[in-house]
Structure formats: C-alpha cells, structure tokens
Amino acid sequence: MEVHPALLLFLLSCLATTSYAHNVHLSALNQSLIVSTTTAPNKVLKIGLDQVTITWSYNDTLPRSADTNYTTVEVKLCYAPVSQSGRDDRKTDDSLDNDKTCPFDITDEPYKRSNNSYVWTIPSDIPTATYFVRVYVINAKNHEIAYGQSTNSVKASNLFQIEGVADDQVQASASQPMLGSFFGYGVNDTTSLTLCLRDQGLALVNPWSSGFCNQEKCMKYVSTGYGVTFSSLQRSLVVTASTTNNQVLKAGEDNITVTWGLNQTFPAGTDSAYKTVKVKLCYAPISQKDRSWRKTVDEMKKDKTCQHKIVSRPYSASNNSFSWTILRDVPSATYFVRAYAFNADGHEVAFGQSTNAQKATNLIEVQAITGRHVSLDIASVCFSAFSVVALAGFFYMEKSKGKASK
User: Fold this and answer.
1) What backbone phi and psi angles, to 5 degrees, belong to 183?
2) Parallel, antiparallel, or unpaired for β 30-31 and 144-149?
3) Are 254 and 367 contacting, i.e. CB atoms less than 8 angstroms apart?
4) Residue 333 has pLDDT above 80, yes or no
C-alpha cells in the first residue's frame, strides 16, 4: 500500500509537536532523595491534632553534579496500596499527569542538598487511610525530574495511618452544603460540622430535630477555620518584589526576588499563630477583566486571583527572601505578589502584598513564551524543505509513469 507524501508529512509533524508535551513518568525519574518521617509504626494519627515531621536530603552516594538543575521540591502525602484497592479516584499511573497517588500538598521549598525539615499539622480534610510521603524535585521548566519517598519501592514499609474524614462524611458535605448557613454562620462545609458532632459521640442528624447537639460548640469549631474570607484577614506582612517599573519580564528566563516579613508597627504577639507562609503570583485587575477564570472572590476557597505558586516556607518574622525564575507556563498578564500566613490548621490568617489595596501600584508585566524554540525552528525548516523535495519527487514520479504508459 502506498502512503501519500502529504499524509506522511502530517504524521511526522504531529510526532515532532507532541514530543514537546509535558508527559513525565515516575519510572523515568531518578530516585535521588532520601526521605523520612517521624511517625512510629502502628501509631494512628488524628487530623487537626497530630503532626508529621518530614526530612529530606540528596543521596550522597550519587554524583554530586547530578542535582545541578534541581530548583524546587514539592512534598506530598500519598496513598499506600492498601488504601488504593478498588478506588479509581486514588489509582496509581506511571504518567504523572494521570497519577492520583499523591493528591495532598504538604509544602514546596527551594531545593537544598541537605538539612531540610518540615513540621506538618495534618489538616482537617484528610480522609482516613494509610499513607507515605513523597518528595518531587522540580526543574526551572516546572517539570518533575527526580524524587524520593519515605517507603520502599513496593510502598509497604514505614507507612502511617491517619484517622480522618470518612467517605460518608465527605458525601454528607456534598449532599448537605447549606447546613451551616441554616444557623446563620454562612458555613458551607458540613464535613467540619460532622467531625465536631463525632467528637461529641453524636451522628449527623436533622437540624430541625430536638436531638441536635450543642449548636454553639459545633458552630464555634466550624467558624474557626472554614469559610475564610479575604476581607477577614489582617494585612500584617510587608511584601516587596524586585522588579523595575515598566520592565517586561520574560517567562522561563527572568527572575523576581521576593522579600517578606512582619510589619514591625504591629504589636508583639500578632504573629503567634503564624506557622507557614505561601507566596503567590496574582493577577492584577487589568488582567482579570472579562476573565471569569481569574475572578476575585472574597471567599478564599473560591478566589482565583492568585493561581501561580512561588514558594512555601515555615514562618519567620524577618529576613525572608526568595529568587524565583518565572515558570514557562505563566501567561502574559499584569501581576503582583501576595504572601499568605497560615496557622497550624492550614487556614489563612493574614497576608501582605507588593501592591496597594486597589492593586494598582508596583505591578509586574510578564510576557509568556511564544512556544517557539531553536530546535523546533530547525525541525520546521527541515520538514518544510523535505516537503518541497518530496512534492517535486512525487510529481516527477507521476510524470515518469505517465510517459512510460504511453
């Protein structure tokens, strides 16, 4: 069967294009990190109360030059096989784009070869299951290139159990989203209320029934961490970004140096509940107009202003600085930088930003990559030249066949 040259060129072009897609596989990553956790065997940890201390470092038995392109690390909580059985929503896939083993973010940090440690308080929305911890290494292009984990290759050792949210409680929160607002608290996370009721030895019951539990206690529990609004946060952090006015930064090339710290005009003890800080790149109003997917919403869970993660660090009142290379997938837009302070429960309690309240000063212009690279340009030229030659050859062959038939 003859293959038409045009079809052949089309297929080759498709292969050349798809080769640039992000399609990282776990099996292709170098296991170059050593990861450990402080949990003891057979200890059942409780959400909202217990902590896990995670440490990681580069494996010194490997060549020291192998980590030269390591930029950041992402620490994640992962399901063990015993908690994945029969659960497609937790299924392991070698392609990291499709993998559902590690859905819970713990922290992300700048890469350091050694002396890395993070104390994590288990959030209140973690399901009951058996887990391990995995740390991914990310390069400047925001691709995973290495990893390490706190268990062995078959994920059977050094596991830990968490007593958390049961499946029926998660379903209850989805089927009864307005239970909290019935009491006038504006809370729409029934999972929290269910946990509170469980702590009192009661089940989730009809709020109209006389057997409903202590409303004040449960609503106080819920209101301390759920339904957080931006307007309720204290602007107690001072944030700066080292960009020059009117300077257009290029994604994948230019850097932003971000500094943050506690505003020293606030009284001592203001930051006593601050445990971690997450720094994010946020869309300015001019780049949000007519774009609902970037819309600012006062409720933090629904807000889409700050979609690009820069760094997460344990809280320190001063001397905080991070140089961030703008990732290649950051779109062209006008931005500012915002830092959120989180408490031990993983809830936002304060913030600071590099612009004013109207988000109109000290803004950052980013120009996205065009998608063209030298290698792609060379490939395009080669394919174009090949197509011209192939087309000429095709017509020559057809003409020769026509003459021969005569």
Assistant:
1) -90, 5
2) parallel
3) no
4) yes
**Exposed, middle or buried, 377 (CB in 10 Å: 0-12/13-18/19+)?**
exposed
pLDDT at residue 41, as a whole number: 61
Residue 241 bridge partners (DSSP): 258
- CB–CB of 149/36 below 8 Å? no
Map residue 400 onto helix, strand or coil. helix
Residue 396 belongs to what H/E stretch?
helix 374-405
pLDDT in tens, 274-325: 999 999 999 999 999 999 999 999 999 899 999 999 998 899 999 999 999 9
Angle at 350 between CA 190 and CA 339, to 5 degrees: 110
- In 38-166, the DSSP E strands lie at 44-46, 51-58, 72-79, 104-110, 116-121, 129-138, 144-149, 160-163
Quick one: what percent of the chain has pLDDT higher than 70? 75
Q: What are the structure tokens assigned to 33, written together?
A: 């990190």
Question: What integer best gives the mean pLDDT of the chain?
Answer: 80
User: How far apart are alpha carbons 199 and 203 in whole angstroms?
Assistant: 10
CA distances from 393 to 167, 170, 321, 384 (A): 65, 65, 61, 14
Q: Which of 61, 81, 72, 170 is nearest to 116 (CA)?
A: 72
Q: Say which residue the tokens 């993070």 belong to.
A: 118
Given a contact cutoff of 8 angstroms between Cβ atoms, the answer to whether 233 and 348 are in contact is yes
CB 351 within 8 A of CB 339: yes
Which one has a higher pLDDT value, 388 or 75?
A: 75
> What is the DSSP secondary structure assignment for residue 224, as one 8-state letter?
T
| Single-letter residue type at 370 | T
**Mean pLDDT of the region 140-163:** 90
Burial 125-138 (b: 16+ CB within 10 A, else e): bbbebbbbbbbbbb
Residue at token pair 């600071």: 352
Nearest by Cα to 328 from 356, 308, 303: 308
pLDDT in tens, 8-42: 555 555 454 444 445 789 999 999 999 999 876 66
**160-210 residue pLDDT tens:** 999 987 765 544 444 444 344 333 333 334 444 444 444 444 334 333 333
Residue 230 CB-density burial (10 A; 0-12 exposed, 13-18 middle, 19+ buried): middle
Strand 234-235 relative to strand 348-353, pairing: parallel
